[in-house]
Amino acid sequence: MRATAAAARRLVSHSPLSSSAFRSPWARHAHAAAQSELSETWSSTRSPSSRTGPQWIFLGCPGVGKGTYASRLAKFLGVPHIAMGDLVRQELSEPTPSGLKLKQLMNEGKLLPDNVILELLAKRLEAGTVAGETGFILDGFPRTRSQVEALDKVTDIELVLNLRLREDVLVMKCLGRRICSGCGTNYNIANIDVGGENGAPRIFMPPLLPPPSCANKLIIRADDTEEVVRARLNFYAEESKPVENYYRAQEKLMDFDVIGGIPETWPKLLDVVRPFMPEESLSVAAA
């Protein structure tokens, strides 16, 4: 059984979707909703939803590990992991004026306009509705206050996980990222071992190296240079505070500090989200 609202509020102090519609109105209103009257436009799209599963959000700086942990949790919950970064990269791969413009913005470390993000998400959510998906974990969305308000008009988020990690470690992680050009699997060649400062714990993250079949096919993302990484972190810091404050005021935000690699961090993350997981997911998580 998922946690009650009261339990959710208690857990938020430890360090947090009923559902509404994501149907065809997303596509009809996504572009208009990104304009100055975004929230008002989307308020008329709210209707009963067929989505009955968990609907969570993962926040956090680029490189903190949102994709890794959101993907794992999505498997337990039986819902899709919807990563805005993946949706954007898919669009980038298209040799269209839109794809070329997105590539330029990404290489400059800039955030994409709301109308672009909302249209990409609308398309993905509509496809999920048609496929009978019961929930989702959003990764990399919302990024701005206007996006938060748009999302709030069409669904009720009950759990927002805010992953945090030291900036120097984030930069090392981002610069170590590699992608197999053959299968698309992500790896990381960085070997991070940073001592604690001012009583902070040591952070140890061994490299996630590829198997021999991928070793000669590794590529670096165009936006994984130190200059672009630091620009992205600065942009994120400026844009994320209103988002975090919004959900914190609603007592839905749970801050979670990444303490190391997957073996150290994963069990602790499971512990803090376990009260919000459906019963059928708990047996899987315990395995």
From TrEMBL:
Its EC number is 2.7.4.3. InterPro entries: Adenyl_kin_sub (IPR006259), Adenylat/UMP-CMP_kin (IPR000850), Adenylat_kinase_CS (IPR033690), P-loop_NTPase (IPR027417). It holds the Pfam family ADK. SUPFAM superfamilies: P-loop containing nucleoside triphosphate hydrolases (SSF52540). One of its GO terms (molecular function) is ATP binding. This is adenylate kinase. It is an enzyme of class 2 (transferase). Belongs to the adenylate kinase family. Keywords: Chloroplast, Kinase, Nucleotide-binding, Plastid, Transferase. The keyword Kinase applies. It catalyses: AMP + ATP = 2 ADP. PANTHER family: NUCLEOTIDE KINASE (PTHR23359).
